[in-house]
Design goal:
Distance between the termini of chain A: 56 Å
Largest interface: A-B, 60 and 60 residues
Radius of gyration of chain B: 23 Å
Structural class of chain B: alpha+beta
CATH superfamily of the largest domain in chain B: MucB/RseB, C-terminal domain
Largest sheet of chain B: 7 strands, antiparallel
CATH architecture of the largest domain in chain B: 2-Layer Sandwich
Oligomer: heterodimer
Number of strands of chain B: 7
CATH topology of the largest domain in chain B: Phosphorylase Kinase, domain 1
Structural class of chain A: mainly alpha
Shape of chain B: globular
CATH architecture of the largest domain in chain A: Orthogonal Bundle
CATH class of the largest domain in chain A: Mainly Alpha
Number of domains of chain B: 2
Strand order of the largest sheet of chain B: 1-2-3-4-7-6-5
Number of helices of chain A: 10
CATH superfamily of the largest domain in chain A: Winged helix-like DNA-binding domain superfamily/Winged helix DNA-binding domain
CATH class of the largest domain in chain B: Alpha Beta
Number of helices of chain B: 9
Helix content of chain A: over 70%
Helix content of chain B: 40-55%
Shape of chain A: elongated
Order of helices and strands of chain A: HHHHHHHHHH
Chain lengths: 193, 255
Amino acid sequence: MNSSDSASAQRFEQLLLPHLDAAYNLARWLMRSDHDASDVVQDAYLRAVRAFDQFRGGDARGWLLSIVRNACFSTLRSRRGRNFVDSDHLEDDIEDQRGDGGDPALTIERRALDAALLKAIEELPVLFREVFVMRELEGLRYRQIAAVIDAPIGTVMSRLARARRRLQELLMPYLGQTTLAAVSQKGDDDGGL
Amino acid sequence: MTVDCDRARSLLPAYLDGEVELPPALELEEHVASCARCSGLRDETIALGKRVRSAAPYHRAPTALRDSIRQEIAAASPNQRHRWRRLAWPTAAAACLAFLLFGYFLGQHGRLGSDQPVLAAELVAAHVRSLQADHLVDVASSDHHTVAPWFTGRIDFAPVVVDQADIGFPLEGGRVDYLHGRNVAALVYRHDKHRINVFVWPAESGPRDIEPSASKQQGFTLVNWRAAGMDYAAASDASPQTLATLVKALRDQGR
C-alpha cells in the first residue's frame, strides 16, 4: 500500500514535473502576472496530485494544462464576477476594439512591431488568448487544445482564426504599405532581431 | 477547380498548423500557388507565427516554484512518514548506494554543490520544452559558420559550434535558452530519431576542465562536463552510449 504510494508519487513526478514550464507559461499568459501564475500553478499541481488516480494515461501535458486552465479560470472568475468568460461578450469586444492598436505614422520598426504584437496578445480576451498561446507557443494540436478547454475542435479553429485576424488587424498600422512577411524576411537577412 | 478563395481562406490556417487531411491539402496548395491574394495571406499567416514565437516570451517556471512543488508532491503522498520503514530492503540498499555514489561524484568534482539536482531537472525541462513548443531552433542550419555568428550579441560568450554529421550527429541549429538564472547557448544535434540538446555556458568558478559524468533524470540521459572554462550539458532520450560518442567528439573538437 505504502510502497504503491511511493511509486505513485514517483510516477507523478516523472510524468508531470517535466511539464511545469508548459503549465507556468499557460498560467502566466492567462493571469498576466508572475505572482498569480505561481500561485495558480502551485494550486494546480496540488489538485493534480490529489486527482492523479483518475489519470488514465495518455497526454499528461494536456491533462495538467486542463487543470491549470481551470485553476486560472476559477481565480479570474472570483475576481471579475461570473460573466468574465461570456463568449458573446468577447465576440463583441473583439470587433469593437478594431483599429485602436497603434499610431499609423509609425513605420516598420521591428522593435515597435514586436512590442505592439506582445501587447495585442496580452489584450486578447482570455478565451482567445489561451487557444492562441497553446497553439503558437506550446505547439499543441487542435484536438489537444480541444481536450484542454473541453470544447469541439471547431471552436478551437474559429477562436484561433479570430485571434490571428485580430492580431493582423492590430499590426496593420505599423506595417503601412509593407507586409509582415516582408519585414520578417528583411530582419532574417540582417540576422538581427 | 474545387477550392475557391473563400474555401482557401478558411482552410489556410488549419493547413499551416498541419491539421488538414492530404486530399484537401493538395487541392489547397494548387489553388494557393495560382492565386496571389491567397499566397499573400499564406505568407502573412506564416510570418505572424514566426514573429509571435520570436517576440512573445515563453514564460518558464521560476526555480523557487519548481522546488516548492517538488516538496509538495513528496508531502502530498499519504502515509509519507511510514514509507521508509516498509520499503523493501533492495530498494533501500540501492538508494543508499546511489546516494553514496552521488556524494562521491560531488566530492570528486566539487561543483554545482546542492544545485545539481535542480539543474538536472531544469535541463530535462528545457530539453522537453524545446521538443514540444515547436521552438527547437531559432537559427536552423547545419553550417557552423551560420550558427556561431548568430549567437553574437545574443549571449555574452562565444560557444564552439561544430557540425558532427560525419560521425552521425548532424547539427540542426541553435537557440538561446534560459537555465539556472542565465542565458545559455543551446546547440541541437540529431541522431536517428533522437534530438540532442547541448547547453553551453561559462563556468562560474572552479577548475577549467572536468571529466564528463552521466546521469539519468526522468528517463532522459544527461551528461555534464567542463572544457576550457565552459560548462556543457547534453540532454537526450538517446542511450548513454550514443550520447557518449557525441560528447567525446565535442570534447576533442574543443581542444
